[in-house]
Amino acid sequence: MPALLSLVACTSAKEATRDEAPAASSATQSAPAQEGPSRMAYPATRSDAVVDTLHGQQVADPYRWLEDEKAPEVQAWMKSQDGFTRDALAKMPGRDALEKRFTELFYVDSVTAPFRRGNRFFYMRTHKDKEKAIVYWKDGESGQEKVLLDPNVMSKDGPVSLGRWVPSWDGKRVAFPVRPNAADEATLHVIDVDTGEWSKVDVIEGAKYANTNWTPDGKGFYYEWLPTDPSIPVDARPGYTTLKFHKLGEDPKKDVVVHERTGDPTTFLQGDLSRDGKYLFASILRGWSENDVYWKHPAEKDWRLLVKGKGAKYTVLAWKDRFYVVTDEGAPRQRVFAVDPKKSERANWKELVPEDPKATLEGVSLVGGHLALEYLKDVTTELRITTLEGKPVRTVQLPGVGAASNLMGLEDQDDAYFSYSSFTTPRQVYRTSVKSGKVDLWAKVEVPMDPDAYTTEQVFYTSKDGTKVPMFLVYKKGLKKDGTAPTLLYGYGGFLVSMQPGFRASILPWLDAGGIYAVANLRGGGEYGTAWHEAGRGANKQNVFDDFAGAAEYLAKEKYTQAKKLAIYGGSNGGLLVGAAMTQRPELFGAVVCGVPLLDMVRFHLFGSGRTWVPEYGSAEDAAQFKTLYAYSPYHHVRQDVQYPPLLMMASDHDDRVDPMHARKFVAAVQNVKGNPAPTLLRIEANAGHGGADQVAKAIESSVDMYAFLFQALGVAWPDAGVAAESR
């Protein structure tokens, strides 16, 4: 189920809705005064007199013509805008030094935690001289390393990407999706591990949402299939998803449907199969907060209802004729139940792990005959081990305060692996014994940096309605709190996604230039469980924007920075966040970087995967929800009487999750604010999807453009750049 989370990357009181644009006390305030060159000579953009009447409200949409990406006029506009932006970015100082530093930071050798299947180990490596990570395998942990899948050679110029690969339980085959232009759309393939040959028969189109669930004998798998019929409207396609079974060697077009489509484009259908093959599950998800779970034995025809979600979500693990259900039902921070399949009625569930009122349960795995529980406690990871009856055994020793994955392993194998990092500690992989608790370093990433040169602090500030919100601040030691430090504030605030304190190599040049990197843990995320999410979704979405503005005000009040030195950045749902922040409180910010965003909240549901996000945002088709959406929709609140901060919009040409029409329309609106002297630039990444291009060279190029823009906009000179940025 793809969330809106960008890889750049993925949170009360109800805000009163408004029929009109925000009052002068908010949206009509101006950004910090911009000095320097006069208004840029942008490529021309026409404006049409398009006005809809929705629920009695007139809604102007002058740049609707930019929605049709295939139109020659729109293609020409995109080409001229991207060319204009790249010319402008190329002239900004410090680029050579930034490129050199990002090259050192991004081209590194690393390895992921392994998956064990049979006696075979599967994992990924990045290499200093390769653009993309490579999948390797070996017999036994000390066996000879062999290449299995190398996306670097799958296409001539690199636009083909590798999706989530899944080995069979015996380790003899791997199913994997291939994604053209790093988009979500995919074709599923199967490779023979011993020979390295791709099957010519087992090729399945329509694998956009496919999760492969192998049978124990490795002769087939269950997967989600989405028809590619062009006659089906894009916004309706999710409702056509079916769960199918594919038997290796047979024509995929004859695959048996084991669960029919829901017919509801606001839902997701997901399947799962227990490792022993006894239990097949189907989950119908309505957004990120609610789902129904059905199950059956694979040979049976009819599905049995396990639980009907009413405002709650359920995740089910199965092992040795027992279901382990993780849920927020009656427990916003989640708890765990044991269920006997023979007596699976809700009244017979037995609570194993009660809710912890001070920590949020993020995930559960079955490893080494135990339950491995991943918790967030004030947004830092805690890993706990219990027996299968929920009796506490130990808390896993972590290297420090940071972000760790849950234990990865098998239900009946003692060895397990987990990864750990912090803002200033690159990823490390550890092996642990579930039985003894011993923890050993298995692999680590070597990055050219001195982690002792930086410090991280966590602060708590008060949002508009009195809610306490946590925020991480990372900076170089010796920082003086005199209000002059350039600061980059990042946020997301949606879809239950928790912004954890993991390593980000891209921020190091910013820190070395004396900058602060701030991450606000906004409502809408999952940091404090379901209640935190509910306080920032639907009718409560304005709380997220207020939390973000509160973070900016706190940073200025406590003299970390000031408005003209504060930049904001967000992608996807975070792009909506910074778009709303920019249009509601432009006076708080000195620069904005907005990536692959939603910005037209009146029409978002008509494009890409938009209808699947209706449970998160609401829909303009509903009168009450329309009022909420229109009240904060960034595209509809660009004003002619406001000076906005400099804006760099970063879009992708093959984003089939969030339609790039949002970026195009918003840039057109801001560029046509006649009295706005600050630059508004649209950068379009070619051969890239929602998460951008997956080549290191492209990541370096994108990062150089972003930070060169920020350095110039905020008047920052990186010590190694050799050229002082223009001071404003």
TrEMBL record:
Residues 22-34 have a biased composition (Low complexity). This is Prolyl endopeptidase PEP. Belongs to the peptidase S9A family. It comes from Corallococcus coralloides (strain ATCC 25202 / DSM 2259 / NBRC 100086 / M2) (Myxococcus coralloides). Signal peptide: none annotated. Residues 43-444 form the Peptidase S9A N-terminal domain. One of its GO terms (biological process) is proteolysis. Keywords: Hydrolase, Protease, Serine protease. The lineage of its organism: Bacteria, Pseudomonadati, Myxococcota, Myxococcia, Myxococcales. The keyword Protein transport does not apply. PANTHER family: PROLYL ENDOPEPTIDASE. Residues 15-40 are annotated as: Disordered. The gene is pep. GO terms for cellular component: cytosol. GO terms for molecular function: oligopeptidase activity; serine-type endopeptidase activity. Residues 503-715 form the Peptidase S9 prolyl oligopeptidase catalytic domain.
